[in-house]
Amino acid sequence: xxxxxxxxxxxxxxxxxxxxxxxxxxxxxxxxxxxxxxxxxxxxxxxxxxxxxxxxxxxxxxxxxxxxxxxxxxxxxxxxxxxxxxxxxxxxxxxxxxxxxxxxxxxxxxxxxxxxxxxxxxxxxxxxxxxxxxxxxxxxxxxxxxxxxxxxxxxxxxxxxxxxxxxxxxxxxxxxxxxxxxxxxxxxxxxxxxxxxxxxxxxxxxxxxxxxxxxxxxxxxxxxxxxxxxxxxxxxxxxxxxxxxxxxxxxxxxxxxxxxxxxxxxxxxxxxxxxxxxxxxxxxxxxxxxxxxxxxxxxxxxxxxxxxxxxxxxxxxxxxxxxxxxxxxxxxxxxxxxxxxxxxxxxxxxxxxxxxxxxxxxxxxxxxxxxxxxxxxxxxxxxxxxxxxxxxxxxxxxxxxxxxxxxxxxxxxxxxxxxxxxxxxxxxxxxxxxxxxxxxxxxxxxxxxxxxxxxxxxxxxxxxxxxxxxxxxxxxxxxxxxxxxxxxxxxxxxxxxxxxxxxxxxxxxxxxxxxxxxxxxxxxxxxxxxxxxxxxxxxxxxxxxxxxxxxxxxxxxxxxxxxxxxxxxxxxxxxxxx
Length: 578
Prior knowledge:
Layout: H1 2-12, H2 23-43, H3 49-86, H4 103-113, H5 115-129, H6 145-156, H7 176-180, H8 186-204, H9 208-217, H10 221-227, H11 253-265, H12 271-281, H13 285-288, H14 294-313, H15 341-349, H16 354-359, H17 362-371, H18 375-384, H19 392-407, H20 414-431, H21 436-440, H22 445-457, H23 463-475, H24 480-492, H25 524-532, H26 543-559, H27 563-571
Helix pairs in contact: 1-2, 2-3, 2-19, 3-5, 3-17, 3-19, 4-5, 5-14, 8-9, 8-12, 9-10, 11-12, 14-15, 18-20, 19-20, 22-24, 24-25, 24-26, 26-27
């Protein structure tokens, strides 16, 4: 953890980024790699028992944090680019009503114009890239191999030997089972079930090309063709010559989606086959039946929102007449589809069981704020809830996330960001005081002096170490003279020093004047007050201010008979002070 804190600080200081203008997203990518490495280290050579459970828990945290940095980098880089494009006065006109363009071009234009939809697509990609690992089925050549062998056996055996196979299909084609209402060989059924699950898991992870390749390699190319219908229609005569050289995609994509919905609606199909075609058509009903994790459920709903908005955005003028889909009215989804990202997370958080518990995870809540573009509100809530019991890991994450978002050009509430940074500085001060200046420098100018002065005046370290902290502050652009004055003032003036009246005027016998012995050691409070002057005696430019504080503190000591403390004070001053 110590090493990670230093690595994060080096990014804040800019040593890892150079002159990158997109520092917010670039910093998030560095944080992603750092935490991803921690996850790999935590899960390598996992032990058994309680120690092994802690290793797995730590590995899960680091992986989730790495995923969070990945999401931040993706979204805020896209948002920054969109702000840059919005400043360009020469933006191309919309192609919304241009009937001479292919669906592919219109879809690309829609994503460029609808920034929110483009973000939803990026969130879906993130959910696909961060999905849990799974074991795909092996490739098997020969369609329905065991069923085919059983049919050949039936053709050559006598009638008594055929009795066990009379329920098997007699033809080898994809529709034979449903047409004849017979089964295929149990080995083929098991493989088909595993194949369909693998196809869904590939689509779930955005690996459509892998899914279609598996179908072809397993001698089931018709499945690949059925999934390929989602590609947008392209025509080189309606696009730039360099973009494509042949016609491709599906000119009746809407009809294909209705057909997929019908397959998903058919209760006679395998659950993963239904989920596969439901995902392709943008339905949620059947996809949710095979979802397991928070990530799965969010993906199912985000995918449905994207398909719905794409369909709505592509309605209107078209160069061709689409085939009607009125015969599929009976396969309408029973669930009400979410319309935006916030509704997606509200739906998932309302679920029972482990999914709801996972949705309450601190990093999941942060991921929601990033995905819904509500990070400003999240930071305010987090700052208000800060306490000594707040997980230091979340303080670190939110502090650095705030810096990344702010560097990306987004507006954040400065008081809340400063509160989070101060909380992180407070934790750094215990073990990493050399890193504090880098974070104080990220606060508003009016807070920098106060926060750094409060930090340094509480340190009980050597004078040389104190001077090193001042050098770090100067290197990060802090006003070191103002810091020294504030640190000295805070150190030499505790509450009892604010009233410098003669203690002999007090009626309290305990306050009567007593002269201390020269050899009597000074108290810890007096030692702290004397050492507080080290800040202003560190530079000759501050000697006038230091002299005033020396006089005030000396008078305070002498009025109380603490001649020993006054002697220590005067002996601590530099030789060239007077």
